[in-house]
């Protein structure tokens, strides 16, 4: 079956390189866009062609839809891969691609719209009988409405932004007394961040785990899952370490969450690669949380335990190929862990951009480093602070932890501060080693320091 001849990559850094590598193995030519500060990067060097689309601020380069569409037209690219972030979840961008007869490598504009409206996604799931946390069926329209819903489900509750992401507009509300103030500050924050102040309410689930399921869907409506990922190690709503599979998952759990995820994806008429996020509570109950309509940073841990190249699958699915695997063909083997190494102070998590004076990534058996860094590269202050993803595979979780510790010991990053020391401490933590983790884990272990941003 036909594939694209050339793909334009509308992204930078490690994910751009990840996409170039997949394209090279598929025999597809690559063109990449870059901003002024990204001229001398590895991704630009590795792509077959590169086009400058503007100055460093993303609004004038990686988010500039007309420039990117023009770049695709100039390079004769048939398709655009958006990576993650930037335009990956912008339905207008998908429509601009379609209008210019360019394939968008990702879900439909409608999928992205529903995924971006978290209250609506919840409502759709509830209608289909997929469990959601008790809460509001729609965004709450007033303080009074919020109070009524909260009384009905019982405190504590959590306010979330319908257009949300990154924890903006999120507030835990312990009781009636603080509800009014929380309602207004959350609404203001959501409006400032997303131009939409709508809030919905969920019952607050203490010590939840964040478990998500990777989905692949073809254009005919066939959907498979590639198992779950445990993403509970996060700080300020940024994931720091992810693993696959979930430590306490047996075959029954995987079947249950996988089938829920497929039912959810079918309810959305989902296309291409995506992720269904779930809350797992202390009693083992699963609730749908939200849908992510992009390739995610943590996709490699799933690749490591399934042997499936998710980016290649995305490209083939976008070209109209049917799924190449049936659910029973997906085999799971061993355990994988990813550490996101950021250019940040490892104690305060403050960005630490600058020149990398020495960079020696780890390697060896069972170690994969996805990075765009090299000795002499400058981490720009304009974008996210991800320097490298270290991904390991082992026969079980214990071997994966040992291997990650070995990999981080040999990883040399000089000239900037990195979060490597943070992970070295985490990998020695007894609770982490026992798999005794949840989304509040880090807040308890490293109480926020004054001035930590
Ligand atoms: C929750 C929750 C408790 N109950 N939802 C969602 C996105 C993720 N980054 C954090 N989220 C949470 N969702 C329900 N129904 C707890 C969290 C949560 C959290 C919320 C506010 C502030 C800090 C938090 C830290 C970890 C988890």
Number of domains: 3
What is the CATH superfamily classification of the largest domain? ATP-grasp fold, B domain
Largest sheet: 8 strands, antiparallel
How many H/I helices? 15
Structural class: alpha+beta
Radius of gyration of CA atoms, rounded to a whole number:
21 Å
Topology record:
Elements: E1 6-9, H1 13-26, E2 29-35, H2 42-46, E3 49-54, H3 65-75, E4 79-81, H4 91-99, E5 103-104, H5 109-116, H6 118-127, H7 143-153, E6 157-161, E7 171-173, H8 176-194, E8 199-203, E9 209-217, E10 223-235, E11 238-244, H9 251-267, E12 272-280, E13 286-292, H10 299-306, H11 310-318, E14 335-342, E15 354-355, E16 358-360, E17 367-371, E18 378-379, E19 386-394, H12 397-410, E20 412-414, H13 420-426, H14 430-434, H15 441-445
Parallel strand pairs: 1-2, 1-4, 2-3, 4-5
Antiparallel strand pairs: 6-7, 6-8, 9-10, 9-12, 10-11, 11-14, 12-13, 14-19, 15-18, 16-20, 17-19
This protein binds ligand MV4.
Structural features:
single chain, 453 residues, alpha+beta, Rossmann fold, Dna Ligase, domain 1, D-amino Acid Aminotransferase, Chain A, domain 1, 15 helices, globular, disordered C terminus, binds ligand MV4
What does this protein look like?
This protein is α+β, with helices and mostly antiparallel strands. The chain has three domains: 6-105, 3-Layer(aba) Sandwich (Rossmann fold); 134-203, ATP-grasp fold, A domain (Dna Ligase, domain 1), CATH 3.30.1490.20; 209-445, D-amino Acid Aminotransferase, Chain A, domain 1 (2-Layer Sandwich). 34% of the residues lie in helices and 25% in strands. It contains 15 helices and 20 strands. It has helices spanning 13-26, 42-46, 65-75, 91-99, 109-116, 118-127, 143-153, 176-194, 251-267, 299-306, 310-318, 397-410, 420-426, 430-434, 441-445; strands at 6-9, 29-35, 49-54, 79-81, 103-104, 157-161, 171-173, 199-203, 209-217, 223-235, 238-244, 272-280, 286-292, 335-342, 354-355, 358-360, 367-371, 378-379, 386-394, 412-414. Strands 13-12-9-10-11-14-19-17 form an eight-stranded antiparallel sheet, with helices on both faces. A five-stranded parallel sheet has the order 3-2-1-4-5. Strands 7-6-8 form a three-stranded antiparallel sheet, with helices on one face. A hairpin with a 5-residue loop joins strand 9 and strand 10. The radius of gyration is 21 Å and the shape is globular. Mean pLDDT is 96; it is low at 449-453. The site of ligand MV4 has 15 residues, from strand 8.
